[in-house]
Amino acid sequence: MHTGFEIIEKNAEDIKILKVIGELDALVAPKLKEKITKLTEEDTKKFIIDFEELEHINSLAMGILRGKLKTVKENSGNIKLIKLNDHIMGIFEMIGLDEIFEIYESEEEAIESFK
User: How many domains does the chain have?
Assistant: First the structure.
C-alpha cells in the first residue's frame, strides 16, 4: 500500500496527464488544485487525471475537482478522468460527478477523445 500522496506529471502531445497516487483528502487536495491552477496559467487546456493508484477521495477533493473543471472549461479546455476503481467510481456516481466529468477506462481513449 502506498503511503502519502504524489502527483506524477507527464505529457501526451498538448495534453497534461496527472497521475494521482495515494489519498486525495483535505490535506493534499489543495496541492492538486495548485498544480492545475499553475498549469492553466501556463496555458494548458487539456488535462487527464489518472486515478489508477488513488486509494481514497473525500468530498473536499471532489469539490476542488469540480471547481477546476469549471475554470478549465471557461478557458476552452477540459479535464477528463481515467482508471477509476470501483470504489472511487461508486462515490462519483453517488454524488453525480460521473454526469459532469468524462470518464474513460484508458489513457489512450481519453487522449483520442480530445481529437
Answer: 1
